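Hey, quick one: can you model this chain's 3D structure?
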Amino acid sequence: MPVLPPPPSSEPSPGDRRPPAAPCRVVLCRDCCCGSAKVTGVDHERQAARLRESVPVRVSDCLDVCDHANVVVVQPSAAARAAGARPVWLGLVNDPDATEDVIAWVRAGGPGIAPCPEILALHTFPPPSSRASRASGNG
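Sure thing. Here's the predicted structure for all 139 residues.
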C-alpha cells in the first residue's frame, strides 16, 4: 500500500462549515482480559492515561481476541481510509516501550500515512473476521 503524504491541517478554514477530517486514532480494548489483572506486570491505568494524553483514544469493551491481550487497534485517518488504509491490530502491547511506539506512529500519521515501525510489526495480527475467514477456507 502506498504511503500518503500527511493530510492537510484538520482545522477548517474560515468560512468552511465542514467538520474537520477524522484523525488517526487508537481503540484500546479494556474489559475481559485486556486491562485486567489477568495480564500481569502491566500498569494498565498508566498505559491508558499515557495513550489518552497523547493521541485520540476510544476505549472498547472486549474485542474477543483475549489471547493477544493487551490489544490496541490503530485506525487510519479518514483521508488514509479513503485511500485504502485499514486498521492495524496490535497484540501483546504490554510494556511502556510498545505504548510509546504506538504513540509515535499515530503522531506520524498511522496506517496509510506513515509506515508501521518494524518493532510494532512484531505485534500485528489479523482482525477476528480475517482469522475466521482463513480458518473456514474463505480467506
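One thing worth noting: Confidence is low (pLDDT under 50) at residues 6-12, 132-139.
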